[in-house]
């Protein structure tokens, strides 16, 4: 194979472009490094890549020629698994013999500028159905289902409008949660539902950044500490913004959002149905191609229904979440190898319904109530709030561990 020589600068640029496409669409740090390394090896170059939350630094070594480039700043973190899949396919084509740098650049640009697979209205309706399905998974009745659907639609529409105007993501999360919470609280005030916590929490849960939570923990488990901490920091701040928005909605509407509230488990057939509907909304949001959507739905049913089965048989929610996440982790890896798609295309939609968003909201509201009460805060409120916080941390950790179980147990296999 001919030495890249004068084309080394262009190879470095294209490698960084592919890495950036993957990273800004929430591929794991390990997958970004693997793709860049495979791309540059196809041109007989050794890559040394440093990934930070805002940009990437790449040094190429080819026959003792060195080029160091800093990639463009990552503008925002989204989840576009169609782009991730296309970037992986481009790397595979380069490995198979594609060497035309102009053609590679054209293909990379087409990936970056390709429109979403689904229209905004399709995504909005699907996510509203996800919010309604989550309310049923937490024991809500049919009136609560319809309230959560309408509130989820209002919050999602506003979130899309603010996102299209590139507004601050924390402000967007706060305003979307506030508006959806007000809609849910007003429905309770008008006696459409007598379950105020679900009318407020279910629409807020579809805003929770489950993917950064899971990827952040996975990055830290694989010793990518700075990126893992950055992802977790982003996810925590957005979750706090959502909780503050819901707290504001309770103050405006007078709806009650109790810190400690017993949940009612659905039957396994009902759980499977609403888990499938919940996963469908995230598949549309994550831009998963239709040919792969059924796999994501299967993973969503397998993970959440497995956890519900565990809870019905006396297993605690943390252990049940771990078992459900391990199941979806191995399912996603198996399907990823069969379809030559990233495992995240299936795993994230499979576990995101298990992310403890409602628990996180309740714990933040509990802390706000403690601050408001001061020294007179009831010991029961303090204990319940602390217990909820610990539960949230443990659940996020075990879900990430379960999804990462295949790569942790078989570290020599190339990540899918």
Structure description:
- The chain is mainly alpha-helical and 416 residues long.
- It has 2 domains: 5-112, no CATH class; 120-409, no CATH class.
- 70% of the residues lie in helices and 5% in strands.
- The protein is built from 16 helices and 3 strands.
- The protein has helices at 8-24, 29-41, 81-96, 101-112, 120-137, 142-164, 169-189, 196-205, 210-221, 225-253, 268-285, 290-312, 317-339, 344-351, 357-373, 379-409; strands at 46-51, 56-62, 65-70.
- A 3-stranded antiparallel beta sheet has the order 1-2-3.
- Helix 5 packs across helix 8.
- The longest helix is centred in the last third of the chain and has 31 residues, at 379-409.
- The chain is elongated and about 70 Å long.
- The model has no long low-confidence stretch (mean pLDDT 87).
Residue-averaged pLDDT: 87
Uncertain regions spanning at least 5 consecutive residues: none
What would you call the structural class? mainly alpha
Helix content: 55-70%
Distance between the termini: 28 Å
Number of helices: 16
Order of helices and strands: HHEEEHHHHHHHHHHHHHH
Please indicate the percent range of residues in DSSP E strands (runs of 2 or more): under 5%
Main beta-sheet annotation: 3 strands, antiparallel
Q: Number of folding domains?
A: 2
How do you describe this structure in short?
With 416 residues, this protein is mainly alpha-helical. It has helices at 8-24, 29-41, 81-96, 101-112, 120-137, 142-164, 169-189, 196-205, 210-221, 225-253, 268-285, 290-312, 317-339, 344-351, 357-373, 379-409, and strands spanning 46-51, 56-62, 65-70.
């Amino acid at each position: 194979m001919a030495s890249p020589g004068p084309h080394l600068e262009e190879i470095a640029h294209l490698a960084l472009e592919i890495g950036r496409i993957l990273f800004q669409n929430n591929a794991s740090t390990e997958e970004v490094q693997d793709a860049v390394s495979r791309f540059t090896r196809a041109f007989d170059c050794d890559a040394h890549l440093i990934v930070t939350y805002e940009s990437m630094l790449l040094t190429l070594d080819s026959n003792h020629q060195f080029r160091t480039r800093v990639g463009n700043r990552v503008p925002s973190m989204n989840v576009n698994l169609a782009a991730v899949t296309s970037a992986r396919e481009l790397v595979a084509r380069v490995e198979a013999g594609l060497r035309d740098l102009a053609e590679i650049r054209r293909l990379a640009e087409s990936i970056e500028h390709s429109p979403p697979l689904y229209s905004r209205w399709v995504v909005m309706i699907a996510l509203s159905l996800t919010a309604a399905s989550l309310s049923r998974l937490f024991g809500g009745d049919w009136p609560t289902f319809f309230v959560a659907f309408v509130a989820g639609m209002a919050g999602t529409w506003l979130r899309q409008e603010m996102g299209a105007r590139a507004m601050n993501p924390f402000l967007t999360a706060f305003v979307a949660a506030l508006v959806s919470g007000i809609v849910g609280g007003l429905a309770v005030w008008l006696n459409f539902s007598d379950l105020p916590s679900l009318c407020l929490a279910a629409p807020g849960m579809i805003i929770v950044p489950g993917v950064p939570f899971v990827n952040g923990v996975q990055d830290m488990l694989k010793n990518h500490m700075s990126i893992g901490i950055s992802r977790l920091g982003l996810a925590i701040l957005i979750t706090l913004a959502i909780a503050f928005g819901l707290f504001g909605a309770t103050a405006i509407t007078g709806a009650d959002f109790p810190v400690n509230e017993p949940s009612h488990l659905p039957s396994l057939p009902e759980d499977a149905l609403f888990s499938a509907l919940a996963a469908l909304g995230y598949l549309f949001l994550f831009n998963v191609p239709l040919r792969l959507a059924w796999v994501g739905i299967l993973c969503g049913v397998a993970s959440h229904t497995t956890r519900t089965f565990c809870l019905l048989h006396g297993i605690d929610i943390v252990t049940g979440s771990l078992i459900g996440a391990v199941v979806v982790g191995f399912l996603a890896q198996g399907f990823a190898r069969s379809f030559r798609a990233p495992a995240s295309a299936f795993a994230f939609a499979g576990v995101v319904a298990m992310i403890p968003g409602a628990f996180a909201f309740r714990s933040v509201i509990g802390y706000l109530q403690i601050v408001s009460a001061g020294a007179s805060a009831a010991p029961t409120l303090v204990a319940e709030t602390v217990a909820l916080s610990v539960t949230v941390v443990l659940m996020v950790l075990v879900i990430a561990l379960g999804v990462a179980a295949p790569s942790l147990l078989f570290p020599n296999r190339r990540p899918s």
